[in-house]
Amino acid sequence: MAGAIGATALTGGVAMAAPARPLPCSASMSNAHPADYTYTDVRVHTGDFAAVTTVAHYRTTNTTHHGTAGRKGNVSISYYISGATPGYTVQVSVSVREGSRTGSCSTSFTPHR
Question: Which residue did the predictor score with more confidence, 84 or 16?
């Protein structure tokens, strides 16, 4: 009984809602070593119908793409590898959102000639 009274006193008598569980996120590349002037896909697995944003952090610029996961939580977002710097590892940040839940993950690829 004392524990319940102490908890109420700490929160000022107001029930505190538990924070939403993070939305799961995992990402990989269809080809982690793409040649210049080809495509590679960021493969993301997350919650059903979640909004997905990917940002590829190239040496001189950042490129953002958006997609929506399907009913099993999967989406592939394609990146065209123009004349990217060969040997420079491009980090890809992924953020996911479904309702009030969010999550993040990352992957990378290294272009070559």
Answer: 84
Are 79 and 30 in contact by the 8 Å Cβ rule? The answer is: no
Neighbouring C-beta atoms of residue 108, cutoff 10 Å: 15
**pLDDT tens, 22-74?**
999 999 999 999 999 999 999 999 999 999 999 999 999 999 999 999 999 99
> What integer pLDDT is reported at residue 85 of this predicted model?
93
Say which residues have a Cβ less than 8 Å from residue 52's Cβ, sequence separation at least 6.
44, 46, 66, 67, 68, 69, 75, 77, 94, 95, 96
Query: Which two structure tokens, joined as six digits, stand for 17?
Result: 């809602």
Give the Cβ contact number of residue 87 at 10 Å.
Answer: 10
SS3 state at 103: strand
Distance CA 63, CA 71 (A): 26
pTM of the model as a whole: 0.82
How is domain 20-109 classified at the CATH fold level?
A: Immunoglobulin-like (2.60.40)
Q: How many angstroms separate the CA atoms of 30 and 81, rounded?
A: 13
